[in-house]
């Protein structure tokens, strides 16, 4: 696909160069300052060319009237959007701008699929919407291409003959084409003549939000969804259970729910908006660690060491009641989150921080041997817990995810092959550098804590990430620190998310968080959409983001 894109870019560049050379040798190809050459006077009684005004009648009409010249235009430039379009074939023409009688048109055959996209764009551009007539001059037409006509989420936007046509192999691709048009009209008032061919380099692109440690209102989350959609981001991770709080209404275990929290009605509204914006919401109930909110209501499930000391946030995974409770929650929330992915957590299980987990937690060591054989250890029991939770969500069609420090090496039990590793650290107990995960064939999502972790209050040496660092230094290949993994592993890196963690919840308000992530999120969107070095420098990119 990348070779094909390069070939098309070479063809587009050659076409543009040839057109420029022709402009040097052919008369009438130099544009006036307003991009249209002023027409010669039109004799009386002769119709004006389209887009020109008739000149006053000459005092002595000539015997043979010369035809009015056709307006001439400079070769167009690519739209300037965030993220930048990957390919633009320039052309000469007036481009397109919204007019009073212009419409957004969806063919009747595509109405069921694209009516939402059409109505949204029509509202944003203050145009009419119709799905019952053919496109005419001045309109924007949205249509699905033939099955297999392009990569998932890709689109083609053609501006020609006074109209815009956006097509894609799926609804998401067409939607992203409308985001490009919306941004360019917002920036320049019009869309340039020519053809955009565009699509993402990575399938997973998004934002991770910790609502467990800090309550965020439903309205604030919905605003972030709209912001994400305009940046062509397609995934919102929702971490709603932790030691501090459990933030979504529960029918099976109302005793664990914190105040304030999201109601199920609010969650349905969030997921419905996300679906319309082609964003998947990825819920996370973190276990077997980070369950302090659950343990406050169920202290009998608390993990204790050999001396009887409680282990913060950790349930006793040798106790079947702990698994039953977590599975009841998973099954309750599966219908509430109808997306593709489910995050199981699995990070920072504090039993494994001890120097000798077998001696410190004899009940866990015994349970591991009973289930997995005489050489099994506590880490094997933790891996078995992860696989068991994956087995709960998998039959519902969910793809399981877990934090990379929940994948242990050298045990008798291995994590299921289909669990995606969300890579954030190589420093935690059990965590390894990125290469071992990739070498074993694991699919990975990038949440590099050096560049992509926005931790409220900046504890534990975290610093608020800047858009400039992400834009200038980071790529999806940079999974840990600032060193990229070899490019041959690129197909296994599914994408990246920018993460908001609320360790010190009072350090910033909702409004401050929104302002703080604006530029970093835009920079991430650029780098995960197109992994190539950006064509404009940071100052120009920031100016564009500020304008849009």
- Give me the CATH architecture of the largest domain, please: Alpha-Beta Barrel
What would you call the shape? elongated
Number of domains: 2
CATH topology of the largest domain: TIM Barrel
Distance between the termini: 30 Å
CATH superfamily of the largest domain: Glycosidases
Strand content: 15-25%
User: Structural class, from helix and strand content?
Assistant: alpha/beta
Reported for the largest beta sheet, the result is: 8 strands, parallel, barrel
- Give the strand line-up of the largest sheet: 8-9-10-13-14-15-16-18
Question: Low-confidence stretches at least 5 residues in length (pLDDT < 50)?
Answer: 1-64
Could you explain how this protein is built, in words?
It is built from 14 helices and 18 strands. The chain is of the alpha/beta class and 548 residues long. It folds into 2 domains: 112 residues, Chitobiase, domain 2 (2-Layer Sandwich), CATH 3.30.379; 344 residues, TIM Barrel. The strands form 3 sheets. An 8-stranded parallel beta barrel has the order 8-9-10-13-14-15-16-18, surrounded by 4 helices. Strand 8, helix 4 and strand 9 form a beta-alpha-beta unit. Helix 9 crosses helix 10. It comes from Streptomyces globosus. One of its GO terms (molecular function) is beta-N-acetylhexosaminidase activity. Belongs to the glycosyl hydrolase 20 family. It holds the Pfam family Glyco_hydro_20b.
């Amino acid at each position: 696909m990348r070779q094909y894109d390069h070939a098309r870019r070479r063809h587009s560049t050659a076409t543009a160069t040839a057109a420029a050379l022709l402009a040097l040798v052919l008369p009438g190809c130099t544009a006036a300052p307003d991009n249209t050459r002023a027409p010669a006077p039109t004799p009386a009684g002769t119709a004006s060319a389209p887009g020109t005004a008739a000149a006053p009648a000459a005092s002595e009409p000539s015997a043979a009237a010369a035809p009015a010249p056709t307006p001439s235009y400079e070769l167009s430039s690519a739209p300037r959007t965030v993220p930048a379009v990957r390919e633009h074939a320039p052309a000469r023409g007036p481009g397109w701008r919204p007019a009073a009688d212009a419409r957004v048109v969806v063919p009747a055959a595509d109405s069921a699929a694209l009516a939402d996209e059409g109505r949204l764009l029509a509202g944003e551009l203050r145009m009419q919407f119709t799905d019952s007539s053919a496109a005419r001059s001045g309109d924007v037409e949205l249509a699905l291409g033939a099955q297999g006509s392009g990569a998932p989420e890709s689109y083609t936007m053609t501006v020609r003959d006074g109209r815009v046509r956006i097509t894609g192999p799926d609804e998401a691709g067409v939607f992203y084409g409308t985001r490009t048009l919306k941004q360019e009209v917002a920036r320049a008032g019009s869309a340039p003549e020519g053809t955009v061919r565009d699509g993402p380099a990575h399938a997973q692109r998004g934002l991770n939000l910790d609502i467990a440690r800090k309550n965020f209102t439903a309205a604030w989350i919905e605003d972030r969804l709209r912001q994400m959609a305009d940046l062509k981001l397609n995934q919102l991770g929702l971490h709603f259970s932790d030691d501090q709080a459990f933030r979504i209404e529960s029918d099976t275990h109302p005793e664990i729910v914190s105040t304030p929290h999201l109601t199920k009605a609010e969650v349905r509204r969030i997921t419905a908006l996300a679906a319309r914006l082609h964003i998947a919401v990825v819920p996370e109930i973190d276990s077997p660690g980070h369950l302090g909110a659950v343990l406050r209501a169920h202290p009998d499930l608390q993990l204790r060491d050999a001396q009887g000391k409680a282990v913060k946030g950790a349930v006793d995974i040798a106790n079947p009641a702990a698994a039953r409770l977590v599975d009841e929650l998973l099954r309750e929330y599966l219908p509430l989150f109808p997306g593709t992915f489910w995050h199981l957590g699995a990070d920072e299980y504090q039993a494994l921080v001890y120097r000798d987990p077998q001696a410190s937690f004899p009940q866990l060591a015994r349970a591991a041997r009973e289930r997995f054989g005489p050489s099994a250890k506590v880490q094997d029991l933790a891996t078995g817990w992860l696989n068991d939770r994956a087995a709960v969500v998998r039959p519902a069609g969910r793809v399981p995810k877990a934090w990379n420090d929940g994948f242990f090496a050298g045990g008798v039990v291995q994590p299921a092959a289909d669990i995606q590793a969300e890579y954030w650290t190589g420093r935690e107990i059990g965590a390894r550098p990125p290469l071992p995960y990739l070498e074993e064939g694991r699919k990975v999502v990038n949440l590099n804590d050096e560049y992509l972790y926005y931790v409220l209050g900046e504890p534990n040496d975290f610093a608020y990430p800047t858009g400039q660092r992400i834009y200038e230094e980071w790529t999806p290949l940079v999974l840990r620190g600032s060193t990229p993994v070899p490019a041959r592993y690129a197909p296994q890196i599914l994408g990246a998310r920018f993460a908001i963690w609320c360790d010190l919840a009072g350090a910033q308000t909702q409004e401050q968080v929104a302002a703080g992530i604006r530029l970093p999120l835009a920079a991430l969107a650029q780098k995960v959409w197109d992994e190539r070095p950006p064509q404009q420098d940071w100052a120009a990119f920031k100016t564009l983001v500020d304008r849009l």
